[in-house]
C-alpha cells in the first residue's frame, strides 16, 4: 500500500518541515507536490485530534466500510430464519395481539418470501434473497437482535449513524476521523458514496460532522463526473496561465509570510492548499476504475447492468480504503419515497429489485478484500435503520405481500477484522417480531465497532456546549461474544 | 419538599408481608436467601456502615444529590433521582448498584469490602427495614401530587385549559368533582365508581384512536393504580407550598460555593501601576502590561495605520474598508484620526449586521424548525433577526436588550394597548429569542411530552449558555456534577418559564398549508398579530389588489364551471326516465343528512353519475380544461406574489402555568417534588425569596420571566456583565479572557486577567450597558492597536498569546469572507432587513443564495434553513444550531482551498472585480495594480509590489493573447481583461486577503 513511505532521494525534501520551508507558501510547491504524489512519496498519515488519542485497546481493524440499506431490510426474509413463521403462515398473530405499527394495518403472518438454507462451514442461515452473499456466509457475523428506538425512517437513519434520533449529531465516520485521522494526506478521511438514484433523505446531514471540526465531515464522492466538488476549476486555465498565476500568488504569499513570522493559521492555510493540490491529483487516480483488470471488474459485477452501479461504488470503496481512507460509507437506497428498501406494499418485488443491485458487488468486495489480505484489518458493516414485521401490511385478516416497519427486531452483519466469523448473535421470538435474547441497541453496536477500531467508546469524547459528547451518548457496551 | 416516592408508597398498599415482612416474597427470584444467614438490620449493621462510608456527603447538612442516609426517613425518601432502595429488590436499587459497581463511595480507598456490599444486598433483599416507622407526618400516602402529573400526562390535552371536551377540566380537584356533561368524574373514596377511573380501566380513555392525534400515551396500569389509591383515600389534597427559594439557605449550596470567583459580584478593582506607563493608552493596557511584565514581555509595537484600519473595519463591520476610507484615513494626520475612524465605523449600519450575527449564533437563529427532515420553514423568524441587527445599530443598552428578549411580553400590555407602538412591536419580536430551538412538535408523532420537554430544555440551554455562561442543562437529570446547581434549581427556572413554555399546555409551531403536512390539531400557534399599523396598512395595500384579483379569477372560473356542470347534468338527466327527473333534482338540492328514504335511495342509484366535480368536468369538457389551466396558472402566479400576513413569532405568558415537578433523572414520567419559580441559589445570597409580581395591575401574565430578567440585569449580578464583556473581548482578540465563553463554572477556564474582566464588567454597567462604549474602550487601547508580529521571543514566552503579547492573526469568518468578496467585486447589494433571500439547492448538494437583481445581499440576510445552509457557510465553519452555537470553530481545511481556487462563485466574482477595476482605474496596468491593493487589501502597494504586479499582469495578458479564442463562445473579452480577472482571482486567494492582521 502506498502509505507512509518516507522520501529518500537526495533532491527530495527530507521532511514535511523541509518541504514547507522550501516551498513554503503552498501553491508554488504544487508542481513538485504533484510529482511526489505520483511517486507515492508524499503520502503521510494525518493524525486524529482526540485529546485522549486512541488506541485505547488493541485495534483489530484500521479501516472500515459501511453498506447502509436505507428503508429497512426485512430480517425474516434475509438473515433471521424463522421456521415457525412457515407454520403460522396465513394466520393471525397468536393471542390476538394488535401491535402498534407505523401504518396501523396488521395483516396475517407471512413466511419468508425466499427459502432459507444453512450456508458454508458455519451453517449460518441465509435466504435466497442474497445468493452471492450466501456463498461468503463464513465471513459474516450476523446480529439478529438489533432494536431501534424509532420506527420512523429519517430519525431511525440518524440514529443508526449518529446514535441520536434528531439530525445534526456527528456520525460514526466523523467520530472515526476525529479519533483516528487519515492514513493518507491526499484523500479525505471519510468518504460517502451515495446511491446513483439519489441522495438519501436529508442529504448531507446524514454524514455531518455535527459539532466536530469541519475536516471530519464526510466528503461525498459523486459516482459520475467529477467526484469532489470544486476539485477542478470552474473556469479552466491553460497550464501556462495557471503557472503564471501560481507564481505570482506564491510571491505574494511569500512576502506575507515573511512579514508575519511563523504563525499557526498561516501554516494551516499553506497545508490546506497543499492538500487541495494533492487531492486534485490523488482523487482522480483513486477513483479511476479503468485501472482495474477485467477479472476484478466482473468480480464486482461491473459487467452486469443490474448491479454495475453499486459494483462501481464497492470497487471504488476498496481503492479508497487501500489508499488510506479511513471510512467509506455506501448507501443502498436514495431518498425515501423513491427507490429504497421500504417494502410496504410488495416485499418480493421491492427486495428482489434492491438485492440484485448489491448482492454480487458486496460479496465481490468481501472476496476481494479477503484475497488481498485486507479483510484481516478491515471492518465491513452491513446495516439498516430497522427491520420489517413478520405479518403483512394489509387489512386485518388478509395476507398482503408488503411488510411494515419493525423497530423491535432487525438483523445486520459485520465482517472482517477481529470478528467471530460465520456466527449469529442474539435471537428473536419464534416469529422474528421481537428480540428475546441479547438485545443490541445502536449504542452497543457503535461501542463494538469503536472497540474493533481500537477505541474505548467512553474515552472518545469532544467537549461541546458544556458536555463531553460521545458517539454512544451515555450508554453502550462492547459485545464481547462477537469478537474472535 | 414532601417525600414522594411512589414505589414505596405503592408498597404500602400491598399486603404487608410482601414489602415489610422481612421474608423475601415467594417467587421473588434470584435473591432467595440462604436460610441460615441472619439478615442484617439497619440499626446494627447498615447504619454504622453508612456512617463510616456515606454520611460525609449524604447525611445531615451535606446532602449531595438531596440524599440523606442518616435517618430511616431519609433512606426511605431517597434522593433527587428517586428512591435509592427498592425493598426486596437489590438489583433495582440504585444504592446497591452504586456500591456494587464501585461508583460509590467515589474515593478508591473508601470502597466497600465485598462482605459489606453483600451485607447491603441482603438487607435490601430482605425488605430494607429501617426500624419501626416513625410517623412524622399526617400526610396521606397518596396525594394530588401523585395524581395530577398522571392526569397532565394523559388527560388534560383534551380536558384542560384550551379544550375542555365534554365540559370536563381535569387540571384541578374541583374540576374533577364538578365533572362534565355526564356528571362528576371522581367520587372521593369510591375509585371503581368514579367515571374517570372506569373509563381509564376500560381502555376508553384516553381514546385509543385519538392517542397519536393528541400526542398522548396510554395510561399504564401502575398509573391507574395510583389514581385508584388517590381516589380511595378520598382524593386528598395536601397543602403543599411549592419548593421555591425562601429565607432559609439551601443545604445543597454553601457559602463557600458562593465564593467561587464567577459567583461573586465583580469586585471593585484598582488599576495597576506599570513599569512602562508610556504604552498605556487606557486602563486596559495597565492590566495587560502588568501580566506581560511578569513574563518579561511588553506589548508589540503599534500596527501600521492601514493594517489598523482594516482590522477595525472588519472587526466592527465584517467588511474591509472602502478605498476612499483608506485614502482619507492615511491622509488624516490629526492625533485623533484613528478614534474618529472607530466612531465612524461604529455608526455604520454594517456594524449591526456583523455584531447581530454573533448574537444570532447564541440565540440559535434559524429560518426553519429543524429536527425532522421536512425542516419546515419559519416564515416570520426574520423579524427577530432584524430586531437584533437594529438593536445593535441603535446601541440598545444590553440590560434592556435582555429584558426585551426574556420578557418583552411582560414589559407592556400589548393586547390592551390602543396602538401597536414600535416599542410594543420590538418587545414582542424580541421574545423570538426563546422560539429558536429546533422543534418538531408540529407533528403528532414528534409532539409527545418528551419531545416538548426537549424543546423547553433546549431553550433553557440557550438562555443558560448565552446569557448566564453556565451549563445549566447538566442539572436537568441530576444535581450538577461540577457547579453548585441542585436539580431543583433547574426546575425552579423551568417554572419561571412555565407561563409561556408549558409542556402540558403546548402551542405548536405553525404549520401553514403547503409548507408541510397539514395537522388538524394545531391549536393557537405561536404567532401574534401586533405589527405596527403602518406596516399592516402597507401589507394590506400590497395584498388587497392581489387578493381581489385571485378572488375574481377564482369566482369567474367557478361561475364558468357551474354553468357548464349544470348543462352536463341537465343532459344526463334528460337521459334518465322523465318521471324521475323532478325527484332527482330535489334530491341533488337536498343535503345528504336531510334526505328522506326515497331520496337516499335515488342518491344511492344515481348520484354518482349526476355529480360532476371539477376534475371530472375537465376530463369531459376540453374547452373548460383549457380555460381552467390558464386561470389556475394565473392564480398561482398571483399567489406567489402575495406575502404572508405580517405576524410575529413570539413567546408570551398565558397566565395559567401547570405545576412544575422535578423530573427525576430528567424523565417526565417520573415526577418528584413540586417546585416554584426561582433562580440558581448560588447566584443569590440564598436568603432572599424570588419575588414575582404581575407586570401591571390586572395582568393575566404571571410576571415570572420579567422578575428573572430584572434580577439578571441588576448592576451587581455576578455573571451577566462578565459574560457579555468577555464575548466582546473574544470577538476583538480571538480569545476570551475566560476562554470557555459559555462556561463560567468550575469546569470552565479561569480568567487569564481576572481584574481586567471585573474592571470591564464594572465599566460596562457604569457606561449604561452600552456595547459601543465597550468597543470604543477596547479598540482605543494600545493592546488592541499593537501589531500581529510574532517574534521568537514572544512565541517562546507566550505561545498561545494568552498574555496578549501581540494581536492574533485571524481568518475572515464565513460571513466576512463572503460579504467582503462581494464588496470587493462591486456586487454587494446593501439593502438591509426584510424576509430572507432564498437559496437554491442543487441535486449534488451545492446550496447557493439566489441573489437579487443588484447582486447578492450579505449572508445574514440569506435564508438559514437548517437543512439547506449555504455551502459557503458550512465550508467555513458555520455549525448546526443545536440548539445554538457558543463559539465558531475557525478551521483551515482543504475544501476551503478548493472552494476559493475552483468554485464558480469565486471565478465569477474575480471577473466582476476585474471589470470594476477596468471601470475605476482605466487601462493602465500600474493604476490597476494600485487599485487592486486599495480595494482588496485596503492599502497601497509598495514599489516592489507594484513592479511585480504589473509584470504579472503583462505576462498573463501575453499568455491570454496568445491563446486561440475558444470556438463557438461569446467570449469576447479582451486578453487584458482576462489577465486582470486571473490576477484578481489570485488576489482573492492570497493569504493577505483571507487573514486580518
Describe the model:
- The complex is a heterodimer of chains A (484) and B (997).
- Chain A is built from 12 helices and 16 strands.
- By secondary structure, chain A is α/β, with parallel strands linked by helices.
- In chain A, the strands form 5 sheets. In chain A, strands 6-5-7-1-8-11-4-12 form an 8-stranded mixed β-sheet, sandwiched between helices. In chain A, strands 2-3 form a two-stranded antiparallel sheet. In chain A, strands 9-10 form a two-stranded antiparallel ribbon.
- In chain A, helix 2 crosses helix 8 and helix 10 runs parallel beside helix 11.
- Chain A is globular.
- The two termini of chain A are 26 Å apart.
- Residues 1-42 of chain A have low confidence and may be disordered.
- Chain B is built from 40 helices and 12 strands.
- In chain B, helix 15 (337-347) runs antiparallel to helix 30 (771-779), helix 18 (398-407) crosses helix 19 and helix 25 (614-620) crosses helix 26 (622-641).
- Classes of the chains: A alpha/beta (484), B mainly alpha (997).
- At the A-B interface, helix 7 and helix 8 of A face strand 7, helix 34, helix 35, helix 38 and helix 39 of B.
Amino acid at each position: 500500500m502506498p502509505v507512509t513511505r518516507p522520501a529518500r532521494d537526495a533532491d527530495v525534501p527530507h521532511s514535511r518541515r523541509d518541504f514547507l520551508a522550501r516551498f513554503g507558501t503552498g501553491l508554488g510547491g504544487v508542481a513538485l507536490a504533484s510529482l511526489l504524489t505520483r511517486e507515492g512519496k508524499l503520502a503521510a498519515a494525518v493524525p486524529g485530534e482526540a485529546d485522549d488519542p486512541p488506541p485505547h485497546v488493541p485495534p483489530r481493524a484500521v479501516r472500515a466500510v459501511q453498506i447502509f440499506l436505507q428503508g429497512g431490510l426485512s430480517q425474516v426474509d434475509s438473515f433471521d430464519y424463522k421456521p415457525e413463521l412457515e407454520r403460522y403462515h396465513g394466520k393471525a398473530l397468536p393471542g390476538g395481539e394488535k401491535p402498534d405499527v407505523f401504518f396501523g394495518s396488521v395483516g396475517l403472518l407471512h413466511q419468508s418470501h425466499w427459502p432459507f438454507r444453512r450456508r458454508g462451514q458455519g451453517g449460518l442461515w441465509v435466504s435466497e434473497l442474497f445468493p452471492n452473499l450466501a456463498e461468503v456466509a463464513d465471513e459474516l457475523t450476523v446480529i439478529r437482535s438489533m432494536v431501534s428506538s424509532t420506527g420512523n425512517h429519517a430519525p431511525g437513519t440518524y440514529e443508526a449513524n449518529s446514535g441520536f434520533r434528531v439530525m445534526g449529531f456527528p456520525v460514526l465516520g466523523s467520530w472515526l476521523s476525529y479519533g483516528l485521522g487519515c492514513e493518507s494526506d491526499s484523500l479525505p478521511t471519510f468518504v460517502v458514496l451515495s446511491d446513483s438514484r439519489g441522495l438519501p433523505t436529508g442529504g448531507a446531514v446524514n454524514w455531518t460532522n455535527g459539532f466536530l471540526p469541519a475536516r471530519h465531515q464526510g466528503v461525498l464522492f459523486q459516482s459520475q463526473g467529477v467526484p469532489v466538488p470544486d476539485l477542478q476549476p470552474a473556469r479552466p486555465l491553460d497550464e501556462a496561465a495557471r503557472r503564471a498565476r501560481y507564481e505570482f500568488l506564491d510571491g505574494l504569499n511569500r512576502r506575507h509570510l515573511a512579514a508575519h513570522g511563523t504563525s499557526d493559521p498561516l501554516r494551516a492555510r499553506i497545508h490546506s492548499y497543499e492538500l487541495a493540490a494533492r487531492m486534485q491529483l490523488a482523487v482522480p487516480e483513486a477513483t479511476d476504475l479503468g485501472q482495474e483488470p477485467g477479472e476484478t471488474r466482473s468480480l464486482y459485477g461491473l459487467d452486469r447492468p443490474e448491479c454495475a452501479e453499486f459494483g462501481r461504488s464497492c470497487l471504488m470503496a476498496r481503492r479508497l480504503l487501500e489508499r488510506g481512507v479511513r471510512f467509506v460509507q455506501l448507501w443502498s437506497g436514495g431518498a425515501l419515497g423513491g427507490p429504497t428498501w421500504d417494502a410496504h406494499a410488495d416485499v418480493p418485488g421491492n427486495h428482489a429489485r434492491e438485492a440484485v443491485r448489491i448482492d454480487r458487488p458486496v460479496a465481490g468486495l468481501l472476496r476481494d478484500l479477503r484475497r488481498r489480505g485486507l479483510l484481516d484489518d478491515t471492518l465491513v458493516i452491513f446495516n439498516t435503520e430497522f427491520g420489517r414485521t413478520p405479518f403483512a401490511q394489509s387489512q386485518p385478516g388478509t395476507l398482503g405481500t408488503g411488510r411494515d416497519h419493525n423497530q423491535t427486531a432487525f438483523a445486520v452483519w459485520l465482517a472482517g477484522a477481529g470478528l467471530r466469523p460465520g456466527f449469529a448473535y442474539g435471537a428473536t421470538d419464534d416469529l422474528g417480531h421481537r428480540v428475546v435474547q441479547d438485545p443490541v441497541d445502536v449504542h452497543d453496536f457503535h461501542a463494538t465497532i469503536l472497540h474493533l477500531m481500537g477505541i474505548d467508546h467512553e474515552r472518545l469524547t469532544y467537549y461541546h456546549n458544556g458536555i463531553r459528547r460521545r458517539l454512544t451518548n451515555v450508554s453502550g457496551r462492547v459485545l464481547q461474544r462477537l469478537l474472535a | 419538599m414532601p417525600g414522594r416516592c411512589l414505589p414505596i408508597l405503592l408498597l404500602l398498599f400491598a399486603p404487608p408481608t410482601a414489602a415489610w415482612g422481612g421474608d423475601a416474597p415467594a417467587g421473588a427470584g434470584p435473591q432467595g436467601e440462604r436460610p441460615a444467614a441472619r439478615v442484617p438490620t439497619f440499626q446494627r449493621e447498615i447504619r454504622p456502615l453508612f456512617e463510616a462510608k456515606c454520611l460525609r456527603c449524604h447525611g445531615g447538612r451535606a446532602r449531595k444529590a438531596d440524599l440523606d442516609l442518616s435517618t430511616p426517613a431519609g433512606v426511605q425518601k431517597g434522593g433527587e433521582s428517586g428512591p435509592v432502595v427498592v425493598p426486596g429488590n437489590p438489583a433495582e436499587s440504585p444504592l446497591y448498584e452504586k456500591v456494587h459497581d464501585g461508583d460509590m463511595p467515589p474515593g478508591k480507598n473508601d470502597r466497600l469490602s465485598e462482605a459489606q456490599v453483600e451485607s447491603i444486598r441482603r438487607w435490601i433483599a430482605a425488605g430494607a427495614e429501617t426500624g419501626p416507622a416513625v410517623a412524622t407526618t399526617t400526610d396521606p400516602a397518596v396525594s394530588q401530587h401523585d395524581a395530577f402529573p398522571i392526569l397532565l400526562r394523559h388527560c388534560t390535552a383534551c380536558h384542560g385549559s384550551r379544550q375542555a371536551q365534554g365540559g370536563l377540566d381535569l387540571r384541578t380537584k374541583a374540576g374533577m368533582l364538578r365533572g362534565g356533561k355526564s356528571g362528576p368524574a371522581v367520587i372521593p373514596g369510591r375509585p371503581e365508581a368514579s367515571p374517570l377511573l372506569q373509563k381509564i380501566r376500560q381502555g376508553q380513555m384516553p381514546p385509543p384512536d385519538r392517542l397519536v392525534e393528541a400526542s398522548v400515551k396510554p395510561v399504564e396500569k401502575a398509573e391507574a393504580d395510583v389514581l385508584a389509591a388517590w381516589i380511595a383515600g378520598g382524593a386528598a389534597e395536601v397543602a403543599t407550598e411549592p419548593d421555591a427559594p425562601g429565607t432559609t439557605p439551601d443545604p445543597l449550596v454553601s457559602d463557600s460555593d458562593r465564593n467561587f470567583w464567577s459567583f461573586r459580584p465583580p469586585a471593585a478593582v484598582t488599576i495597576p501601576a506599570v513599569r512602562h506607563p508610556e504604552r498605556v493608552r487606557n486602563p486596559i493596557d495597565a492590566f495587560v502590561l502588568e501580566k506581560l511584565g511578569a513574563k518579561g514581555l511588553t506589548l508589540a509595537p503599534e500596527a501600521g495605520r492601514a493594517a489598523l484600519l482594516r482590522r477595525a473595519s472588519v472587526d466592527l463591520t465584517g467588511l474591509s474598508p472602502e478605498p476612499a476610507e483608506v485614502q482619507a484615513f492615511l491622509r488624516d494626520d490629526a492625533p485623533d484620526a484613528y478614534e474618529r475612524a472607530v466612531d465612524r465605523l461604529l455608526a455604520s449600519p454594517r456594524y449591526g449586521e456583523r455584531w447581530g450575527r454573533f448574537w444570532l449564533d447564541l440565540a440559535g437563529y434559524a429560518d426553519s424548525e429543524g429536527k425532522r427532515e421536512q425542516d419546515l420553514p419559519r416564515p416570520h423568524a426574520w423579524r427577530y433577526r432584524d430586531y437584533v441587527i437594529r438593536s445593535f445599530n441603535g446601541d440598545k443598552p444590553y440590560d434592556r436588550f435582555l429584558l426585551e428578549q426574556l420578557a418583552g411580553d411582560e414589559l407592556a400590555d400589548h393586547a390592551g394597548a390602543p396602538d401597536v407602538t414600535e416599542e410594543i412591536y420590538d418587545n414582542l419580536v424580541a421574545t423570538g429569542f426563546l422560539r429558536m430551538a429546533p422543534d418538531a412538535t408540529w407533528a403528532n408523532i414528534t409532539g409527545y411530552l418528551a419531545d416538548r420537554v426537549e424543546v423547553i430544555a433546549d431553550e433553557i440551554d440557550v438562555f443558560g449558555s448565552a446569557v448566564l455562561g453556565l451549563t445549566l442543562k447538566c442539572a436537568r437529570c441530576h444535581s450538577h456534577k461540577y457547579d453548585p446547581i441542585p436539580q431543583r434549581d433547574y426546575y425552579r427556572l423551568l417554572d419561571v418559564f412555565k407561563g409561556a413554555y408549558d409542556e402540558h399546555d403546548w402551542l405548536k409551531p405553525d404549520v401553514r398549508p403547503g409548507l408541510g403536512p397539514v395537522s388538524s390539531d394545531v391549536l393557537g400557534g405561536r404567532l401574534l398579530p401586533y405589527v405596527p399599523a403602518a406596516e399592516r396598512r402597507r401589507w394590506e395595500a400590497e395584498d388587497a389588489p392581489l387578493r381581489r384579483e385571485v378572488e375574481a379569477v377564482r369566482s369567474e372560473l367557478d361561475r364558468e364551471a357551474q354553468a357548464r356542470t349544470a348543462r352536463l347534468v341537465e343532459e344526463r338527466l334528460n337521459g334518465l326516465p322523465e318521471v324521475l327527473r323532478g325527484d332527482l333534482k330535489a334530491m341533488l338540492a337536498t343535503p345528504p343528512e336531510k334526505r328522506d328514504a326515497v331520496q337516499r335511495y335515488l342518491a344511492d342509484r344515481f348520484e354518482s353519475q349526476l355529480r360532476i366535480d371539477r376534475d371530472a368536468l375537465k376530463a369531459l369538457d376540453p374547452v373548460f380544461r383549457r380555460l381552467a389551466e390558464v386561470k389556475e396558472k394565473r392564480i398561482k402566479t398571483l399567489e406567489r406574489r402575495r406575502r404572508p400576513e405580517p405576524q410575529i413569532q413570539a413567546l408570551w405568558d398565558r397566565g395559567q402555568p401547570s405545576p412544575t415537578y422535578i423530573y427525576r433523572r430528567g424523565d417526565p414520567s417520573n415526577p418528584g417534588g413540586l417546585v416554584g419559580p426561582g433562580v440558581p441559589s448560588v447566584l443569590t445570597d440564598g436568603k432572599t425569596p424570588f419575588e414575582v409580581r404581575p407586570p401591571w395591575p390586572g395582568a393575566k401574565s404571571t410576571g415570572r420571566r420579567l422578575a428573572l430578567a430584572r434580577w439578571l440585569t441588576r448592576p451587581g449580578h455576578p455573571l451577566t456583565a462578565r459574560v457579555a464583556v468577555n464575548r466582546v473581548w473574544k470577538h476583538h482578540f480571538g480569545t476570551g479572557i475566560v476562554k470557555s465563553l459559555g462556561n463560567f463554572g468550575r469546569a470552565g477556564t479561569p480568567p487569564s486577567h481576572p481584574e481586567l474582566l471585573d474592571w470591564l464588567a464594572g465599566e460596562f454597567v457604569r457606561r449604561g450597558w452600552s456595547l459601543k462604549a465597550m468597543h470604543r474602550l477596547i479598540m482605543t487601547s494600545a493592546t488592541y492597536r499593537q501589531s500581529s508580529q510574532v517574534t521568537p521571543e514572544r512565541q517562546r514566552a507566550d505561545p498561545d498569546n494568552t498574555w496578549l503579547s501581540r494581536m492574533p492573526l485571524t481568518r475572515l469568518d464565513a460571513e466576512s469572507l463572503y460579504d467582503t468578496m462581494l464588496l470587493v467585486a462591486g456586487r454587494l447589494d446593501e439593502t438591509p432587513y426584510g424576509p430572507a433571500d432564498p437559496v437554491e439547492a442543487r441535486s449534488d448538494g451545492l446550496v447557493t443564495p439566489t441573489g437579487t437583481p443588484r447582486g447578492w445581499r450579505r449572508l445574514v440576510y440569506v435564508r438559514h434553513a437548517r437543512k439547506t445552509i449555504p455551502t459557503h457557510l458550512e465550508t467555513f465553519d458555520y455549525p448546526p444550531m443545536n440548539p445554538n452555537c457558543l463559539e465558531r470553530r475557525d478551521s483551515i481545511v482543504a475544501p476551503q482551498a478548493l472552494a476559493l481556487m475552483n468554485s464558480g462563485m469565486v471565478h465569477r466574482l474575480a471577473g466582476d472585480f476585474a471589470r470594476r477595476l477596468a471601470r475605476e482605474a482605466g487601462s493602465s496596468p500600474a493604476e490597476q495594480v494600485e487599485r487592486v491593493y486599495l480595494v482588496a487589501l485596503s492599502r497601497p502597494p509598495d514599489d516592489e509590489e507594484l513592479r511585480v504586479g504589473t509584470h504579472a499582469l503583462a505576462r498573463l495578458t501575453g499568455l491570454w493573447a496568445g491563446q486561440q479564442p475558444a470556438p463557438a463562445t461569446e467570449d469576447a473579452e479582451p486578453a487584458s481583461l482576462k489577465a486582470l480577472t486571473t490576477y484578481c482571482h489570485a488576489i482573492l486567494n492570497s493569504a493577505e486577503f483571507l487573514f486580518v492582521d
